TrEMBL record:
<keyword id="KW-0238">DNA-binding</keyword>
<dbReference type="InterPro" id="IPR001207">
    <property type="entry name" value="Transposase_mutator"/>
</dbReference>
<dbReference type="Pfam" id="PF00872">
    <property type="entry name" value="Transposase_mut"/>
</dbReference>
<keyword id="KW-0815">Transposition</keyword>
<protein>
    <recommendedName>
        <fullName>Mutator family transposase</fullName>
    </recommendedName>
</protein>
<dbReference type="GO" id="GO:0006313">
    <property type="term" value="P:DNA transposition"/>
</dbReference>
<dbReference type="GO" id="GO:0003677">
    <property type="term" value="F:DNA binding"/>
</dbReference>
<comment type="function">
    <text>Required for the transposition of the insertion element.</text>
</comment>
<keyword id="KW-0233">DNA recombination</keyword>
<keyword id="KW-0814">Transposable element</keyword>
<comment type="similarity">
    <text>Belongs to the transposase mutator family.</text>
</comment>
<dbReference type="GO" id="GO:0004803">
    <property type="term" value="F:transposase activity"/>
</dbReference>
């Protein structure tokens, strides 16, 4: 007999042993439930046990064909393990959501369920199950927000979505750091082309939901975005992403000069004080303005918003002079969406993004962002001074 057959037999025996064990424990729990029900809840009622009935139940360990469920003479007893007409224990919906989130199509999920349970789930049924997330999305997008956020990171990325035909549309993402230093995705918004007007509507929505006091907004150089941000949060500072600025500058510099220019730029944004940074910029200007006048002029025009982070405690500067925090977040969302080359609808994009965002927010809920504990007192003073 071949090893593969032996392995298959062993796997089947193990699966049956696990199912038997699960069935035994479920039936034990139900016997204890009806015992408690009759002795405590029905103490003053004329009632007693009335045998058993059998039913099937799909579990994550396989299908239990003849689960023995106790019953009472009055028909009042109901186990807490499952609903009267429930045919599976809730794991399947969760598994479907996870598979959908990982990028499996509704057809692929249906085939997988058929293989493990022998039950057929149509793509429409799978889609209906994942549609439950749409109600959760609406509630989540309307939830109240904290009053104070030390930082708001703003960024967007494009995905292919179908509306009659396929085209690229933006997903706006807002990542907040609250006054305690915990990250949270405050909202995401799918559809259209990225614009300053779109961002202003999103920021206004955040304000309406309670986010009234913000110290700093961190984002790239989208035209009009700074004005849109200031329209909603006039007392907040703006930090232009230094990493993006350096990258854009180096792309316009000759290859043989790129390393030297990059090192000279580091002397600016890695200075300990604003005065030292400005001095480093003047040295950079004297050295490179003749060879790269437009690039130097661009830095001079943007210097104020590139050095905003130097007003803040040194412990958090490394995480607020760049949009890296939100770019890593977007990378995680992209990874979940990537398995689908294009999405069949805006709703499909929203469902997968929402499920990913929920995972990230849960993970971050117990992890403070680097340096914010040390900076807490200084940031509180800044809130009090401004608001």
């Amino acid at each position: 007999m071949s090893n593969s057959i032996l392995n298959s037999d062993f796997a089947n025996q193990l699966e049956n042993m696990i199912k038997d064990f699960v069935q035994e424990k479920l039936e034990f729990i139900m016997r204890e439930e009806i015992k408690n029900f009759l002795q405590v809840e029905q103490e003053h009622v004329q009632n007693s046990r009335n045998g058993y009935y059998h039913r099937t139940l799909d579990t994550k360990y396989g299908k239990i064909e003849a689960l023995t469920v106790p019953r009472d003479r009055n028909g009042d007893f109901q186990t807490q393990l499952f609903e009267p007409y429930q045919r599976q224990d809730g794991w399947l919906e969760q598994a479907i959501m996870k598979m959908y989130q990982s990028g499996m199509s509704t057809r692929e999920i249906g085939k997988f369920i058929e293989r493990i349970l022998g039950s057929t789930y149509s793509p429409t049924t799978i889609s209906n199950i994942t549609d439950a997330a749409l109600e959760d999305i609406q509630k989540w997008q309307q939830r109240p927000l904290n009053k104070r956020y030390s930082v708001l990171y703003l960024d967007g990325f494009y995905i292919k979505v179908r509306r009659d035909t396929y085209a690229k549309e933006v997903i706006y993402v807002v990542l907040g750091v609250n006054e305690e230093g915990y990250r949270e995705i405050l909202g995401f918004y799918v559809g259209g082309q990225e614009s300053a007007h779109g961002w202003q509507e999103i920021l206004q929505d955040l304000y309406t939901r309670g986010a009234h006091e913000v110290l700093l907004g961190v984002f790239d150089g989208l035209p009009g975005l700074e004005e849109a941000f200031k329209a909603v949060y006039p007392k907040a500072d703006v930090q232009r992403c230094v990493v993006h600025k350096v990258r854009n500058t180096l792309n316009k510099v000759r290859k043989k000069d790129q390393f030297e220019v990059a090192e000279d730029l580091k002397l600016i944004y890695r200075s300990m004080t604003r005065d030292a940074a400005i001095q480093a910029f003047h040295e950079f200007k004297d050295k490179w303005s003749k060879k790269y006048p437009r690039e130097v002029q661009s830095w001079e025009q943007d210097l104020d918003v590139l050095l905003t982070f130097m007003k803040y405690p040194t412990s958090i500067r490394s995480v607020i002079y760049t949009t890296n925090a939100i770019e890593r977040t977007i990378k995680d969302i992209r990874k979940r969406l990537k398995t689908m080359n294009s999405l069949t609808s805006i709703e499909a994009a929203e469902k997968i993004t929402f499920l990913t965002v929920q995972d990230l927010n849960e993970k971050w809920s117990t992890r403070k962002l680097k340096g914010f504990s040390t900076a807490y007192k200084a940031l509180q003073d800044m809130f009090e001074e401004r608001y």
